[in-house]
Amino acid sequence: MTAEVSFTKRAAAELSRRFNGLTVRNRGSSANPSTPQSKGVGQLTSWVVEGMKKQQPQEPKGAKAAKETRPPECWLDHKLLEYFFAYFTPIERTKLAQVCRTWRDVLYRPEYWKGIMPVLHCRELRAMSGDLSSTSELRKRVYSSLEKRGFPSLCLFGAGDDDVYDVVSNFPHGYVRQVQWLVLRCCNITDKGHEVLLEFFHEVTRLEMSGCNEVTDAGLWASLHPRLVHLTLSDCINVADESVAAIAQLLPSLQELNLQAYHVTDSALAFFGPQQSGTLRVLRLRSCWELTNHGLLNLVHVLPNLTVLSLSGCSKITDEGVELVAENLRQLRVLDLSWCPRITDVGLESIACDLQVEELALDRCAHITDMGASYLATISSLRVLYLRWCTQLRDVGLGHICKMRNLEILSIAGCPLLTSEGLSNLVQLKNLQELEMTNVAGTSQELFEYLREQLPTCLIIE
């Protein structure tokens, strides 16, 4: 009897936090807690809570509980549990899997974990005992749980070479082929460890490295494999021009490159050639402070098929560079020029004349004025526009933007010269789905209420 009560109490404690207030959501429903729930979900919630109360028997005085008693059968029925667990988020399922083995076995199925990336905190595992040997069994159980849930991705956080060798030794070999996306964050893995890791995960096609300061150009030359089609390198202090040379020569099938490197110069862009022109479609060069218009000159001629380009934080790019992009990259659909302080209305005129972009980011471009906004208003294809902290934008410029009836996402956060009168014209954008207005001096609670009334389907971020 005690075991049965204990199980029910554990389950009740874990579930009550989610049932109170009808927080269980239907499949595909909004995450907004204020959204009314369907009748079926409400009935399910009521049934579960009442059923939980009924399944808590009172232990008679003086009775001796059996050492082992199975919990109520309704909580062990796999078909019922499969339907029931579908109403929870993956984060909630990680808690529910700890209630009992039956619940864990039902939940440890790939269909419950789609779109989720597991993160292995290597430093925390080492901190539990100070070495790897004493946590060997724990790590094996973790690797096994990943295999059961069928994650196609894996993130190692704070890993060193010892952690790499542990993964190679204990990771389920039948599961290695399923891992196609590998992320390394804040790791101290050396060139050798990096080479061993990528040889082990031989089916990886997407690699991300962030804050991995021990990897050098030589390590990239030794470990990059032609199978990679997506590569991200950010905050890795040793990444420079030679790293780009390795990428250009070793990855002929590369489709997407995200590079945040402070030491990359114009010479790096000269390594790209016809080999990449047929495959590379997405290029993000963020905070590459040394890049100039001269580097863009080579880039736009060898990569004419780019559809996504980010030059965010490339502070030496000017209007002439934007003109080069607009004249030569006619397939471009997404362009990010945020934190490029030298860009003016002249650059926006080039974009408006030559490109049909769908998304444009101009955050912190302080020289953009109402004239530039008038140029943007002529781009009929524009769906997403970011103008955060464009400090010269006034009501006149916002009036031009309000003529862009196809806009779905707009950010004017931090624009200090906009008034409530100009902001009230935003109601003309009937297709708007998201509007960011944080740190705008002309806003008021009355204005937000008016906009929400006139744009009921738009998420307004105050």
UniProtKB/TrEMBL annotation:
Biased composition (Polar residues): 26-42
Keywords: Ubl conjugation pathway
Alphabetized Gene3D superfamilies for the sequence: Ribonuclease Inhibitor
UniProt GO BP: SCF-dependent proteasomal ubiquitin-dependent protein catabolic process
Domain F-box/LRR-repeat protein 15-like leucin rich repeat, chain residue ranges per copy: 228-300, 305-375
UniProt entry tagged with the keyword Amino-acid biosynthesis: no
UniProt keyword annotation of Membrane present: no
PANTHER family per record: F-BOX_LRR-REPEAT PROTEIN 16, PARTNER OF PAIRED, ISOFORM B-RELATED
Protein name (record): F-box/LRR-repeat protein 16
Species of provenance: Nephila pilipes (Giant wood spider)
Lineage: Eukaryota, Metazoa, Ecdysozoa, Arthropoda, Chelicerata
